[in-house]
Amino acid sequence: MGPPPVVTGISPKEGPPGTRVTIRGEFLGASATDLIGLKICGCECLLSAEWKSKNKIVARSGPCKGRGDIIVTTKSGGEGTSTVQFRGYHESIGPVKESAVWVEEAAPPSLPWGRRPMSPTAYTPPDPLGLSTEGDECKFPEDELNELFPDGSGKLSDENFQPGWYLLEHHSNTSFEDLKAGMVFLQRKVEGQKEGQLSFLKANTGAVMDQLDRLVLLKNMYEDDQRKNGKEPLPSLQAAIEESISLADSLFSEILSRKENADKTREALSLLTRHKFLFQLPSSIDKNIKKKEYDLVVNDYTRVKNLFGNTDVKLFQKILGEIDKKIEDLKQNLYIRMKTMPINVQEQTKYIRLLISLNWEGDAAWTAIITRKEYLMNLMNKVRDHFKQKEEQESGEKGRRKAKEADSECSWSAQRAEWCAAACGALAAELHALWPLARRYFAGELAGAPADPQRHADLKEMITTAVQQFSEHTRACVLAGGAAPSADAARARLLANLRSLREAYESLLKLDLPSQPLSVVEKVIFDYRVHGMTVFLQRAHKRVKGLVDKETWKIQEFSDYGAITDLPQLLETHLTDALSSIHKCVYATGRRETPLLAEGSEPLNILQKHTQQILLAFVSVLQELALQHDDQDFNTTSLSVALDQPLGEREAGARWQQRLLIAAANAQYTRRCTLPRLAAAFESFEFPKPELALQTTKEALSNLESSIAETYLEHKGDPLVGTIEPSMYMGRHKIDPDAIVDDARPYVYEIINNLIAVHAEVDSICGAACSRYVRDISETVCEELSRLAACAPAPPRAAAFRARLEASLLRLACAAHLTRKAENYLVETLASIPPLETEEEKKRMDMIIQDFKKRMELQLACLNCDIETV
Amino acid sequence: MSKKPAAQPTLHKVIMVGSGGVGKSALTLQFMYDEFVEDYEPTKADSYRKKVVLDGEEVQIDILDTAGQEDYAAIRDNYFRSGEGFLCVFSITEPESFDATQEFREQILRVKNDENIPFLLVGNKSDLGDKRRVPLDACRERAAHWQVPYVETSAKTRDNVDKVRHATAPPPPYHSTIQNAYFSPKHLKIFKKNGHSHVNAYRSNSI
């Protein structure tokens, strides 16, 4: 705040209104805009003020009168003070006087020749000295006059009239000569008044006499008149006047009443035209409603409310009432329309806005939101009911028509897919409408701010409920059982359902919904994916189980682990199929979805479990296949080879022992090759490896192999061993004990032949794996021999020799297949036989053995041939 | 004439007189606002007032800048009546204005009816030395004759204006040196008394 302005100079210091005044001083404002006030003698003169510098302002004085300060006000310094004063005075302006202000010529204030009567205030008595004061603009300072004549007055009519004041005020410039002349004039006037009545009468005798005559004449006339008309002339006059009044009334009353009527009509007409808008409004509202131009209606209504809302006129109130009724109807109508579903959001928003602008009592937007939600719920229920009904209908028809299973399945899944898509579409579409509406509602775009903070929670709950219902329905729809007709169809259906679910989810994500409903939908998708995975795995499981019937025992190839059928291949195919389906259909993770096979998650466990089940099912399939046989089969095959039917008589590949062996080979192949390949498949699909399942399966397979081996041995070795004893003692009593022993007994050959048969069988199927079976059988054979040798009483010499020979021959024959245990048995047997006593005997033994070798070369080769060479 | 004796500083009323166009307003504005106005605009009657320190006492000087033109001669008496001191200005380039000082002097004396009224003869436009047409001697002679101080000033160059402004020392009156306090309080006191008596006399006469 700068220093306040001070006015120290004024040029000129006095003048009539409109005088151009130069004001000087200090701090009169830093700029023209800083100057915000200028008062000269209390008159605001800012309008004419012209700011020149901080020391100078030029302005024109206002219509002020008297002496007064010049007050400058600036923004920077506030209201200022003045050390000098300006005096304004009003000039009397005559025709020869210049004036800065415009004088209304029509009413010259004091023109002596003016015909108009002068107003009393403007009346100035003529100068008593008979001198003109015009042109005397030199006013004697009023304050000085006041000072000189403290209780005097300059007005001639005042009691305290002071001639000095008067002269100073009016004649300060009059020359002394003039004043003297004025004095003479005044004296004459006074003397003229003093001369008295006598001289006056003298001078006017004629006129006085004349007046007297006239008065007499007047008196006479009056008396005459009185005689003529009686003393009272008034009643007759009054009667005449009354008569004329009534006549005038009768003449004009009609015209007047007509005029009145016309006036009234005109007034009414002008009222009508003036308020045409109001009167036409009801019909225009109807018209606009018919044309659906609600905006116009609202506009008109608001206007009419503003214009006539507070009217006291009955007619207007009536019309307003009518309009209000129409508007109420319209409101109801709009409200119903807003609530009537289906309706798109734009339209609904439009209705809401209209309702708001029509001052709807309720919360229109909220109602709309609730309605939408109800509609969504109903829609979903309807969708469900519709499809349920359709299904029932079809199942009814199916019952009647006994349509093919596959067909119905197909239609069923198609129905379900349709249902799912419809539900998804409904949810997405309705939430798309509902959520923006709600958002706009809460943003205050509709009906101002939401009234209740609870509404937020309500809305959230509404959406959550809707989504939950949706999830229930879709769960009922897609997760319900029902076997898929074929893998392709199932996959297609699953993909389609998943796609519609995901589309719905995507659209909900785009809506920026709260996370809770989203997670519900996501859960549905996730569960559906898990469901899909389970379905695929169950299918694989089923198919693997069905492999039992698929086994043709046709040998597909000779692997390192023996001849195998296509079972392991089928297992692999089925499982890989399932895995690839899973990978293709459900493994892929959509936006904001949980990965299907997260570490330690439920689906992973399911996958592991199912894999294990499938693999174990396969194992049990193998087992069943291997050990499945009928007793007859067993009986025929349980006979010794010698008694057995020739190989050619059986169906090729259908022989039980062969199947057993093939199963074993399959098991081994599965264990060694297929399982690692499956593991690799898991890896290639980026699924976690089902380690536990693989391990369990491996163990199960090993067990299976062992049990198969045992079974085989049981069924192959036991009869073989059983034949030894009878054969050994066959025709024993017929043999001369002292006869020269030159050959082994036939049982030895039988054993060898049997062994060859087993070897051949095993070899034909198991390849390198056969050694185990042959070994086991040789072992049992040796054990039996040793047992027999131990049981036999001390044999005679020849018998001993023969026994030794036989043992040696057997040892020779089985050399390739003897285990340590078998060796021990043979050594034991040999030890229990008395040793050879003579060289000759030894020689003979050697000879026989050589001979045996020569004779049995083929057989020995059969037994000892290396598997690899086959 | 000040009627407010209280806290208000003493008021001295000074009147600028002289012919039209000699530079009364220019001198006044130079004294008041240190500015020189080039434009010529005939004055009617201007009023200025400022505070100055005279002889250690703060006083207000009220300057009445009057019209020099003959058109306004009729109203001069009114102004002169309220004056307590006079600056009679003429232009040294204009002999007519110098001659007119005689009339002004007479009129003032007639109105004030006081031979000892504070009066200063001022020869203005001293910066226009080459156009000088009123000899300095004549000026001094007249001042001496009137027994008033004489000073030559230039409103344009502000020559001697300060001297008028800062006249503080109170030597005996009617000295012809510029330093002599034209605004001397003593002077003014005397004048005040005289003024009153004069007014009273006037009043009694006029009745």
Automatic annotation (TrEMBL), chain A:
Complex formation: Component of the exocyst complex.
Residue ranges occupied by any IPT/TIG domain in the UniProt entry: 5-86
Mind telling me which GO cellular component terms the entry cites?
Answer: exocyst
Annotated Basic and acidic residues bias: 388-398
Q: Gene3D superfamilies recorded for this chain? A: Immunoglobulins
Origin organism is Euphydryas editha
Give the function comment from the record.
Answer: Component of the exocyst complex involved in the docking of exocytic vesicles with fusion sites on the plasma membrane.
Q: Report any Pfam family annotated for this entry.
A: Sec5
- Recorded protein name is Exocyst complex component 2
Q: Which family does it belong to?
A: Belongs to the SEC5 family.
> Per the record's keyword annotation, is Calcium included, yes or no?
no
* Residue segments, region Disordered: 388-407
Q: Does the keyword Transport apply?
A: yes
Domain Exocyst complex component EXOC2/Sec5 N-terminal: from-to ranges: 126-863
Automatic annotation (TrEMBL), chain B:
Entry's localization field: Cell membrane
Report any one BP term from Gene Ontology.
signal transduction
GO CC, any one term: plasma membrane
**Keywords of this entry:** Cell membrane, GTP-binding, Hydrolase, Lipoprotein, Membrane, Methylation, Nucleotide-binding, Prenylation
Determine if Cytoplasm is one of this entry's keywords. no
Enzyme Commission identifier(s): 3.6.5.2
Tell me the superkingdom of the source.
Answer: Eukaryota
Q: What is its main location?
A: membrane
Q: Which Pfam families does the entry mention?
A: Ras
InterPro entries assigned to the protein according to its UniProt record, in alphabetical order: P-loop_NTPase, Small_GTP-bd, Small_GTPase, Small_GTPase_Ras-type
Coiled-coil regions in this chain? none
Extract the SUPFAM superfamilies matched here: P-loop containing nucleoside triphosphate hydrolases
In its UniProt record, a GO molecular function of this protein is:
GTP binding
Membrane topology term: Lipid-anchor
Q: Does the keyword Plastid apply?
A: no
Similarity remark: Belongs to the small GTPase superfamily. Ras family.
This one is known as small monomeric GTPase
Q: Which organism is it from?
A: Euphydryas editha
Q: What is the lineage of its organism?
A: Eukaryota, Metazoa, Ecdysozoa, Arthropoda, Hexapoda
